[in-house]
Amino acid sequence: MAQLTTLNPASMRLVMESVPFLKQHGEKITTVFYQKLFSNHPELLNLFNQTHQKQKQQQKALAEMVMSAAMHLQNLEAIAPAITRIAHKHRSLDVKPEQYPIVGENLLAAIKEVLGEKATPEILNAWAEVYSFLADQFIRIETQLAEELLQQPGGWTGFREFVIDKKEKESDVITSFYLVPKDGKAICSFQPGQYISVKMDIPGEKITHIRQYSLSDSPSKPYYRISVKREDGNDQFPAGIVSTFLHNRIHEGDSLMISAPAGDFVLQEKENRPVVLISGGVGLTPLVSMLNTLAERRHDVPVTFIHAALNSRVHAMKDHLRNLAEQHDNIRYFVCYEQPSDEDRRLKNFDKEGYLDLDWLRSLIPSPEADFYFCGPVPFMKVVKSLLGQLGVKDTDMHYEIFGSAIPI
Given this model, what pLDDT does residue 195 score? Predict the structure, then answer.
């Protein structure tokens, strides 16, 4: 991120002094903020995942981001990765510069409502200045990302119509969709690990829904592939509106509106440096893109792929992954099943039963000197990050992706 302009010192001081209030009331402030935003501007509902709203994920993530920004105003470079990550998502959602003042107005109103008399005019003015400053940074980065896309062959901004060329069941819960542009023109390349946004108008739904899905194949292909888990819901959470519609109602020949690839969780191809990919459940999708790319380009790089799943019935692309390992001497592949079926046991479909643990990872990973990429459910990633730390892996060598709202792990 480029060097940032210095803020007014007095405003910085007032905002930083409000950090204790943010820690105490942050989630309440963001909850009130979203209520006000959606009430005053329902046209913005489509930019936010309403399932994550119900689960309070976005409220928690926004509270963390606001507090982190307040704490690091004197050194915003410390949160530059988070700012870049959010800017990628905003570009993918086609967030417009004119929407930032709307967000700022409702955020300040929420701060005033929750903090009451503690939100003095001086504090509110300071927050307004800081928000405007941060909004300018986001707009600058998002504009730059959009311009870079347009300079690429086949690049575009906003949403473009693609056709389902093939729909392929990968497991009991995951299906792949192969997407080609309806206009027959070129598509831009992407970095392994990136995602696209899918925008859908679903019959019976009042708002347009937008979801991000990782690209699950290498960028050398003439299509984009997404591999979507059907979220059936349970007693706590409703079924996924978009994922169930894609699985049940979208077929070959149908069209989808998608954004160009985005995201900063990407494969960093370094000369001869080993790569370790660790996935849980549908978290394998961006890592399969990375693995396929490495299999095509880098036969000199040692690659270890470790996947954890409930059992083979929900394990997507298992034959493809095993075949890659058999065909390439530099690729090793290991599977951990939490609850293997009788057939899994009979066919020896897995290498470990139960959960990932320190001893097993230590036996598979000869050295902490490698680039580690991991993705999966948040509890899974917390465990993986902890285990890698115990193995001596540096934080700078750990790269991970969180599906949904970016709650720190």
Answer: 97
Binding residues: 90, 195, 211-214, 281-286
At which of 121, 151, 181 does a domain end?
A: 151
Q: Which residues are annotated as a binding site for FAD?
A: 195, 211-214
Judge whether 3 lies within some domain: no
Reply yes or no on whether the pLDDT at 364 is more than 50: yes
Instruction: State the angle between helix axes of 9-17 and 57-71 in degrees (0 to 180), rounded to the nearest 10.
Output: 130
Domain count, the chain: 3
Separation between Cα atoms, residue 312 and residue 315, nearest integer Å? 5
Q: Which amino acid is located at 105 in the chain?
A: E
Enumerate residues 6+ apart whose C-beta is below 8 A from 366.
Answer: none
Catalytic residue among 34, 100, 333, 337: 100
Catalytic status, residue 100: yes
242, 196 Cβ separation under 8 angstroms: no
Domain boundary among 231, 258, 285: 258
Domain span at residue 385 reads 275-401
Global confidence as pTM: 0.91
What integer pLDDT is reported at residue 220 of this predicted model? 96
pLDDT in tens, 23-71: 888 889 888 988 999 999 988 888 877 666 665 666 666 767 777 887 8
Residue the block writes with tokens 């329902």? 42
Q: Say how far apart CA 318 and CA 325 lie, in whole Å.
A: 11
DSSP string, 33-99: HHHHHHHH-GGGGGGS-HHHHHTTHHHHHHHHHHHHHHHTTT-GGGGHHHHHHHHHHHHHHT--GGG
Q: What is the CATH number of the domain that holds 61?
A: 1.10.490.10
d(CA 325, CA 57): 37
At residue 409, the pLDDT reads 60
The answer to whether residues 16 and 131 belong to one domain is yes
Active-site pick, 142, 170, 231, 401: 142
